[in-house]
Amino acid sequence: MDLGLTDRTALVCSSTQGIGEAIAAALAAEGARTVVSGRRGARAKEIAARLSHAIGVESDLLSPHGPEELFQATVDAFGPPDVLVLNGPGPKPGQAADLTVEDVDSAIETTVRPHIRLISLALPAMRARGWGRILAVGSSGVAAPLANLALSNLGRAGLAGYLKTLATEVAADGVTVNLLLPGRIRTDRTAAVDAANAARTHRTVAEVERDSVASIPAGRYGHPAEFGATAAFLCGAPASYVTGVALRCDGGLVRAL
Questions:
Q1: Kind and range of the H or E element at 34?
Q2: DSSP label of 92
Q3: 54: helix, coil or strand?
Q4: 173/177 Cα distance (integer angstroms)
Q5: Per-residue model confidence (pLDDT) at position 193
Q6: Residue 131 contacts by C-beta under 8 Å, 6 or more apart in sequence?
Q7: Those residues with Cβ within 8 angstroms of residue 128's Cβ, 6 or more apart along the chain or in another chain
Q8: Other CB atoms within 10 A of residue 128 CB
Q9: Mean pLDDT by 10 residues, the chain (257 residues)
Q10: Three-class SS of residue 87?
Q11: Which residue in 17, 117, 151, 208 could disulfide with 67, CB within 3.0 to 4.6 Å?
Q12: Structural domain boundaries in the chain
């Protein structure tokens, strides 16, 4: 299937490892001019060097002008992005009863604010040319809140509500807005969550992973490349009638439709 991404410009946030790196690789393989970004600038450049038509940019989206600087670097290299992939680390684990107001502010600052700033920069050009893709990497916690991840559940649900509202506003302009929700994908973030759960429940990490796998109908953790391929489809031309959707890539983990 031709995804129609040849010579499109794709900006992939936090793409120096795991899911973000897999998405960047999938988009580049489809012919997109891809911006790999993250706090580890050397790592971003290393990944970009392995891809076709890609650059690596050091970027901290939580710095005062981080989103603006990353957007400008994209424009300088390839022009305004046709595809904007929103991704970033989640807040620290924790239970809802233990949250402070400062924790809540931190969750919004991490999972909502920088993404909205990037959208405000990228959206005008997308609407003007009548084509754009905004895809946010979320969490299965958007569909079914996850235990001991209260801050992630809070922040990602807030972003999801904003994106659903935005999708209805820009659909007629040829811009789609979707979320892609990972389940248990084998990444450093998943490993960190498993370690936190092990410490909290006084079990080994192996025991936590065994129980987690048992809850997944597919019987395994997902591979980042599987997630990247799904993201590339949602960013492509054939998905032009798919918008306002939160699609799960979770091996059947969440039992709801």
A1: strand 33-38
A2: P
A3: strand
A4: 11
A5: 82
A6: 82, 174, 175
A7: none
A8: 11
A9: 97 97 98 98 98 97 96 98 94 90 93 97 98 95 87 94 98 98 91 89 95 96 98 98 97 91
A10: coil
A11: 117
A12: 9-183+222-248
Q: Is the dihedral of CA 216, 217, 220, 226 positive or negative?
A: negative
What are the DSSP calls for 134-186, one per residue?
EEEE--GGGTSPPTTBHHHHHHHHHHHHHHHHHHHHHGGGTEEEEEEEE-SB-
**The two structure tokens encoding residue 104:** 């809540």
Q: Of 62, 120, 111, which is closest to residue 86 (Cα–Cα)?
A: 111
User: What CA–CA distance (Å, rounded) separates 221 from 231?
Assistant: 17
In this structure, are strands 54-58 and 9-12 parallel, antiparallel, or unpaired?
unpaired
Query: Within 10 A of 18 (CB to CB), how many other CB atoms are there?
Result: 22
For the chain, the first-to-last Cα distance in angstroms comes to 26
Cβ contact 116:155 at 8 Å: no
Any idea of the CA torsion for 92, 96, 101, 104, to the nearest 10 degrees?
50
Helix 224-234 vs helix 18-29: crossing angle, to nearest 10: 50
CA–CA separation, 253 vs 230, rounded Å? 17
pLDDT of residue 131: 98
Amino acid identity of residue 247, one-letter, is: L
Assigned token pair, 18: 């795991």
In the Cβ-directed half-sphere of 107, how many Cα atoms lie within 13 Å? 22
Note the pTM of the prediction, 2 decimals.
0.94
CATH T-level topology, domain 9-183+222-248 = Rossmann fold (3.40.50)
Angle between helix axes 113-129 and 101-111 (nearest 10 degrees) is: 30
**Residue 212 in tokens:** 């987690």
Helix or strand (DSSP H, E) at 12:
strand 9-12
- Asked if residues 28 and 8 have their Cβ atoms less than 8 Å apart, the reply is no
